[in-house]
Amino acid sequence: MQEHLVTNTPLITNDATVFGVLALILGFVFYTSNSKHPIWQKFYKYVPALLMCYLLPSLLNTFGIVSAELSQVDEVAKYYLLPACLVLLTLSIDLKAIMALGNKALIMFLTGTVGVVIGGPIALLLVSVIWPEMIGVTGPDAVWRGMAALAGSWIGGGANMLAMKEIYGADGKIFTIMVTVDIIVANIWMAFLLYFAANHKRIDAKTGADTSGIDKLIDKVQAFEREHARRPELKDFMLILAVGFGAAGFAHLVADFLVPYFQANYPELEKFSLHSKLFWIIVLVTSIGLALSFTKVRQLEAVGASKIGSSFLYVLVATIGLHMDIAQIIEAPKYIVIGLIWMLVHVALLFIVGRVIKAPVFYLAVGSKANIGGAASAPVIASAFHPSLAPVGVLLAVLGYALGTYMAWICGQLLRIIGS
Predict the structure, then answer these.
(1) Is 305 left (phi over 0), alpha (psi -120 to 50) or beta?
(2) What residues contact 311, with CB distance under 8 A and at least 6 apart?
(3) What is the pTM of this model?
(4) Model pLDDT, residue 372
(5) How many CB atoms sit inside 10 A of residue 272's CB?
(6) What CA–CA distance (Å, rounded) separates 311 from 121?
(7) What is the pLDDT of residues 209-226, one digit of tens each?
(8) HSE-CB for 301 with a 13 A CA cutoff
(9) Residue-wise burial string across 26-56, b where 16 or more C-beta atoms lie within 10 A, e elsewhere
(10) How many alpha carbons lie under 13 Å from residue 296 in its C-beta half-sphere?
């Protein structure tokens, strides 16, 4: 059935129209997910908006309205919007403010990162004992390639997940499955973290954690918000676009020199993605974003740089959705086992280190979600402890965006060794 749909001419062949339809879908999802109507509130209580951003575009491909094989909108999004998105999501990093959170906050965040990096390979090794077909595959449908993409999401966020998908060449099928694993497993853990937030005083009392610094942190965050918040003007939006696409263009220029150089002089490094143009583009724009965070350009975050970056991200999400085959989701259960084991390694490491250093549960929760959930859910968890702490979640999540490209790539290399 699916092959028949793909080989026939789709209903929509004009990519400008395809792009417009995707924009309408995203607008519909965001409008309804923020609606006060009881029906929509109940629907999105059980169905995450992010899943709808993947699922609805996939229906276009499944029913022959759009052909993923013929459409080029994902190529445009991948090479133009993705680099700009990464720049805008990383330029707001304030390393001084992160250090001011205290060593325990950073230790718990980095512990969560390490837990993801090592948890993936451990999970793949364990499940291969039961399902040996999970390893020994080298093609684009290899499980390890999909897990590398999931590592991008669980260390950074959606942009990093899409970046790792392209760098490691995961096909739409395994990527769709890992998106499902991401949503299911991450939401289960989210429920536990909300429970911790509701009972954090009792938990911290039992562990003997020192929470005196959190009150000072609340005061500092509130002062920072008052100082930097302002109404954006047209020039601000134009500067944001200039920075995002300007950095993306520069990264393309440099990558055009680096790829042929490594291909000609270091052919053996192909397995480390150093022959991939997109790899260099992603590394370069992430590095540019980090460099800009030390300049006045960082002030663009006060007028919505990360929000514009996030809007690019959701367009990317929709274009990837065009390649989804929803019929393959029925194969997800055994992959969810991988996700659960992976998450257990991440959580166990956090609890062990947290107990040793007597870190407040706030640092454990936000440090975890800054990795697993990124900027979408880290502030939700942070605000569950105190509303003014939401920016702290964003701050650590943005650091996750920066580390996501590098650490997920390392995780992907470990997975490649085990799975191929």
Answers:
(1) alpha
(2) none
(3) 0.69
(4) 86
(5) 15
(6) 32
(7) 777 767 666 676 566 556
(8) 25
(9) beebeebbeeeeeeeeeebeeebbbbbbbbb
(10) 2
Which residues have CB under 8 Å from 315's CB, separation 6+?
22, 23, 26, 77, 81
Q: Which of 278, 265, 290, 309 is nearest to 85 (CA)?
A: 309
Sequence length of the chain is 420
Residue 401: name the closest of 131, 162, 63, 148 by CA: 162
172's tokens? 């739409």
pLDDT tens for each residue of 68-101: 778 889 888 888 998 898 888 888 776 666 666 6
Dihedral angle over CA of 373, 378, 381, 383, nearest 10? -160
Query: Token digits for 279?
Result: 């790899």
- Say which residue the tokens 């417009």 belong to: 20
**Which of 303, 366, 297, 316 lies closest to 112 in space, CA to CA?**
366
